Amino acid sequence: MDLYQELILDHSKRQVGHGLREGHQAEVNHVNPTCGDEVTLRVHLDGTGPGATITDISYEAMGCSISMASTSILADELTGETITDAMEIHAAMRQMLTSRGQDSGDEEVIGDGVALAGVAQYPARVKCALLGWLALTDALVQAGVDVATESQGESA
């Protein structure tokens, strides 16, 4: 079995951040209407502005292994990151997943997220892989983060 397939299976079975925890600034629920995948995601931040740190991402999710693995990778890679760095990682994941296979991702930036590069060749599965990432963006907005500014690399 390919290393990337093993990473996806490992993250879908042993999900980092799974289980909703208290002490959050925001909670959102997202559903992928095309397949029924669903995630409720909570985020806790320490500080404000672009230097704030994501101290916890917790979630409850049900869906396919791609959706579950992607949300686990999100929690694993972004917990402990500043908003600025998290938005850079988010943008790199989105670019890779929407590239239709033209961008294999940069492991230095997205870590285990590179395991999902093959998903880009299956447009119907891209929404599955992006579900948790879109939920995180909404949770950050709910927590008062200007994600449009942060995703452009500007400071508030």
TrEMBL record:
Source species, domain of life: Bacteria
GO molecular function: iron ion binding; iron-sulfur cluster binding
SUPFAM superfamilies: SufE/NifU
Domain NIF system FeS cluster assembly NifU N-terminal: 4-128
TM region positions: none
GO BP: iron-sulfur cluster assembly
Protein name according to UniProt: Nitrogen fixation NifU-like protein
Taxonomic lineage from the root: Bacteria, Bacillati, Actinomycetota, Actinomycetes, Micrococcales
